[in-house]
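Reviewers of the previous submission asked for a worked example of the structure-prediction workflow described in the proposal, so we include one complete record here. The input consisted solely of the amino acid sequence. No template or homolog information was supplied to the procedure at any stage.
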Amino acid sequence: MPSDTRYGFVKLIEQSYGQRLRRFLSARLRNAAADTPDLMQEVYLRLLRVDDHEAIRNPQAYLFTVASHVLHQHTLRQSNTLESVGLEDVEPRLQADARMDPAIEAETEQAFEELGRSLQTLSPKAYATLILSRCDGVPLKEIGEQLGVSRDQVKKYLARALLHVRKRLSEMSQDAT
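From that input alone, the workflow returned the following structure tokens.
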């Protein structure tokens, strides 16, 4: 794929979801002011490495999946530098390092894409509630105002969406075994 197309794709993602990504990362970091720009850059660099961006059916879900992976790896790096390693820590860290294996990471990304596709079967309001609440951190009252429904209805949409995710994840884990 020509690099111009890749840059255009990443620029469109940044324009569409950049602020949401910043809030997503900042909300999950201890040292948000210092680390957020670096992690955002890492997310965008990973997006530049995508060979076939047109195969991504849900760019927003893909972006936040990549961001979650970057956050996870950042957390692992932070814990590795801040803690001393004892024998009881070796096994969990080896398992964590296995999760950073590119093949395993690719499988995980595919699973997230599949989950993203399954979320498209939700009603638009349930989907919007899930994204606004869990990705953007928007309070339920504000979501209700944006969607023109009561806070109780927003809670129902969120419960329905979370139940859908839980069920789909359960199905995916059963398929993997």
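Residues 121-177 form a domain with the Arc Repressor Mutant, subunit A fold (CATH 1.10.10.10). We consider this example representative of the routine output the project will generate in years two and three.
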